[in-house]
Fold Transcriptional regulator, LacI family.
Amino acid sequence: MSSITIKEIAKALNVSISTVSKALNDSHEIGEKTKKRVLEYAEAHHYKPNLLAQNLKTGKSNTIGVILTSINNPFCSQIIEGIQQHALKVGFEVIFMQSRENPEIERSCIETLMQRGVDGLLISPVDETSNQKLLEDIHDHNFPVVIFDRIQHNLETFKIGVNNFQGAYLATKHLIDSGRTKIVNITASRFGLSGERFKGYHQALTDAGIAFDDQFHIQCNMQNQEVLDVELKNAITRLMSAENKPDAILGSSDTITVTLLGVLAELGYSVPDELAVIGFSNIDFARSLNPALSTIRQPALEIGDMAMEKLMKFIAKKNWHQVQIETTELDTILTFRKSSIQS
Amino acid sequence: MSSITIKEIAKALNVSISTVSKALNDSHEIGEKTKKRVLEYAEAHHYKPNLLAQNLKTGKSNTIGVILTSINNPFCSQIIEGIQQHALKVGFEVIFMQSRENPEIERSCIETLMQRGVDGLLISPVDETSNQKLLEDIHDHNFPVVIFDRIQHNLETFKIGVNNFQGAYLATKHLIDSGRTKIVNITASRFGLSGERFKGYHQALTDAGIAFDDQFHIQCNMQNQEVLDVELKNAITRLMSAENKPDAILGSSDTITVTLLGVLAELGYSVPDELAVIGFSNIDFARSLNPALSTIRQPALEIGDMAMEKLMKFIAKKNWHQVQIETTELDTILTFRKSSIQS
DNA sequence: TTGTAAGCGTTATCAA
DNA sequence: TTGATAACGCTTACAA
């Protein structure tokens, strides 16, 4: 690239490099007239400081790194949005990387970001212990790390996520309150968060005096859309042909719930009459589905915003190891639409 | 961060800094035993080169910048995936930024990325002329830019997108071939791409000897889900209560089409019996919608992959201004499902 | 085969 | 108020 450098400005104006540097940084050491000359010349020639050089020198980059497992879903997009909005406000830039649910890739993301000299890390870790030693190491070495979404990770730092237990509990309670008693919970087979959600579901049943039938906990392979489709179809067919037929379903993820709705339509089951459906989902068009989908929504924008806020708290302090850390579990937002309300 | 530097390695091993540097870069100038000592020490102490310093020195960062208008939709996620997969193969890293359909923000993204020393730029521009001068300027100054998706932009360089005209043409033809003649096209009111899609639709009508009724071109405000929902509801109600009722709809974007399906269900119109529906969409669960949605799909992964490939072509050449540029319009993928096939 | 030294574009210390 | 100069961590002629 061909942006002008301070050296060239110095030469053109017949002043020293350091004078230019100071002038550009609005140092009080520099006289007003000189400052003005420099600033005007810089402006006129579209001077842009070379960030690499600046960062190399100062050790600060005003950039943070964000690692998430995947950006391919509305929940993540919304978190990213929240992070970026906050970053914009505080004048930071953001580099996103995807770990693809793979600890190896996650490690390489972390290392890359460090090498690039980011000032801090926001991460939604692959699992409870992924790269724990590495993260502890860098966090201890004066490099701030904040965890979002997957807050069950063991690193001791700020963590921002959602009260999954409560979300699932309230959704299940809603189903029970609407007269459903035979409630199925469909979760992914791999992800840790489903655990809390399952617990909430389970507790709601218990509190209502409903015995949990372990046939009613379905764990799906989420590898891809086709596999999921087949698994759901099989599961529903099996459940609905058993003697103890369910009358409601709680979906533990966006993909599961939306796909489920399609499967039920295809199999000819009416929602909510035969089966009420509610699920964790952050899609924008939940109300446009057929039927309009009842959702447990995560305040994704706020998660991103708060994660960024906590990270900035670290970055701002000189010795931030004294900062009082805490885990924040935001409330989910339940919206009851047609799919779970008896018509 | 506290990664060790070559200076420290040099001191520890009692060799010079340049020896270490050369050894790490596997230079032939360095003896095997020395090389081995250095490599082992580096390995043992987790040496990681400081990329900022490396980049500052070499002027190459092995990083490319990607600017897209928004990452909040499946099409973009898939493009990103394609870019990242290719980047991984060629050992490059990727920084993503969002322009949010705003030329000002776009400009700042471009500048930021340049300052960060990326080796090239992949951009899906806000509109035909957004930041054209700036882009031309940097592209001319030996900094490669490749355009993807929004290929109607005026910059002269490689462009990779989709044949929107053809996609819309074939989809419309499909509707006509299935016996529909009164076909509505719903487009967004703002985006340039809708233009080509409308033209394809229009041409298909013409070729089939069907007169275009301009009541049948609906332009929607896509500002947010609620607004769109209302606009669609009004449009459908109006259309279906007119004397010349439509019998099919072509949706020109993901959001429009999926939302439309919900609206039709809510208003009680049966798809495809009363209204056939087909639309541009890259959602994974099109087949899980109710009814399964016929789609014109863009090969997003391939777009990302090819865009990256073209950019690498530039980056690889010393004097790449001789490279023969071209615009690639990939074919869309039409999948006919229940929503457009008379049962 | 190894080392010296200059330089990438900045900032920062210390003299002038 | 300004200017040499060293330094950040690395690469690379060029010398030894």
